[in-house]
């Protein structure tokens, strides 16, 4: 058995497990309604890049592989769903997916987009067959274990022993959750939406899985002591970038939610309200 090796990247420092999570001011804390981007030095420098011009990609004309790489490099960071599922024959599967997010809190719903190659992936087949699965959020200390589940082993082989991760029984679905994950969701299948390209009619390229969340398991040491919300500094979640790159969350800033009732008078006085009468329906 070969040793686990990271692809060669020269002169990289070792991973710093002790980098502190910090909260800071937003990028332009003095911004006011109506101010353009060139009101700050950072904004002016950002817009200087436009002098290089634009490249526009016609999605209908791009090769699927090239479009895939472009989207992954530009839509980021992406949260990662580490999905545990089980086949109708009882084979337990683990796989990470970065086309993933929550889409509703009421009803509590998540989405996972499962791309398919020549054959449908085990995850979407299993979810359609057994209707239940778990989504486990990956944290820094066990990223390598989760990444091992990317291996393209046959559908008759379980990724669990390969990853070294620990099964924890679920209370509602058959598929186990990952014990090492400090935030896990037990889900049941809501529906699968098949996405089919125009050039392959009748042959879907992607299965968009919508799952209803039945139970959420959160390790107590992850929670804010005064509210039932997760502390990101403790969870240390991992996100996907482009190619085979990952990233982590190490700083945050807060921005206000504005109220029209409070701001309308000032916005009108500043001449910033453009209003059109709605047609009678």
The chain-level mean pLDDT equals 93
* Radius of gyration, whole Å: 23 Å
Please count the beta strands (DSSP E, at least 2 residues each): 14
Total number of helices: 7
The H/E string reads: EHHEEEEEHEHHEEEEHEEEH
Q: Residue ranges: pLDDT <50 for 5 or more in a row?
A: none
Rough outline: globular
Cα end-to-end separation: 70 Å
Q: How does the major sheet shape up?
A: 7 strands, antiparallel
SS content category: alpha+beta
Assembly form of the protein: single chain
* Major beta sheet, strand line-up: 4-3-7-10-11-6-5
Strand fraction equals 25-35%
Cofactor: FMN
InterPro entries: Flavin_Rdtase-like_dom, Split_barrel_FMN-bd
Organism: Paramarasmius palmivorus
Family: Belongs to the flavoredoxin family.
């Amino acid at each position: 058995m070969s040793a686990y090796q990271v692809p060669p990247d020269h002169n990289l420092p070792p991973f710093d497990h002790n980098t502190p999570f910090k909260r800071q001011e937003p990028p332009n804390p003095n911004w006011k309604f109506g101010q353009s981007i060139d009101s700050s030095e950072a904004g002016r420098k950002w817009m200087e890049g436009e002098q290089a011009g634009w490249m526009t990609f016609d999605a209908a004309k791009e090769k699927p592989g090239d479009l895939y790489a472009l989207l992954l490099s530009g839509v980021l960071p992406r949260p990662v769903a580490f999905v545990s599922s089980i086949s109708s024959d009882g084979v337990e599967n683990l796989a990470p997916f970065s086309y993933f997010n929550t889409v509703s809190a009421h009803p509590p719903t998540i989405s996972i987009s499962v791309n398919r190659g020549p054959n449908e992936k085990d995850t979407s087949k299993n979810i359609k067959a057994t209707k239940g699965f778990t989504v486990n959020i990956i944290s820094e200390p066990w990223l390598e274990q989760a990444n091992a589940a990317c291996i393209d082993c046959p559908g008759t082989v379980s990724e669990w022993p390969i990853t070294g991760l620990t099964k924890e029984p679920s209370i509602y679905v058959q598929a186990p959750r990952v014990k090492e994950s400090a935030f896990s969701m037990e889900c049941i299948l809501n529906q699968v939406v098949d996405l089919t390209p125009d050039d392959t009619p009748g042959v879907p390229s992607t299965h968009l899985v919508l799952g209803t969340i039945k139970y959420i398991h959160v390790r107590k040491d992850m929670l804010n002591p005064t509210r039932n919300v997760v502390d990101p500094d403790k969870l240390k979640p991992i996100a996907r970038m482009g190619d085979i790159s990952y990233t982590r969350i190490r700083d945050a800033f807060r921005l206000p939610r504005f109220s029209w009732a409070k701001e309308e008078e000032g916005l009108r006085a500043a001449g910033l309200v453009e209003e059109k009468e709605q047609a009678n329906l």
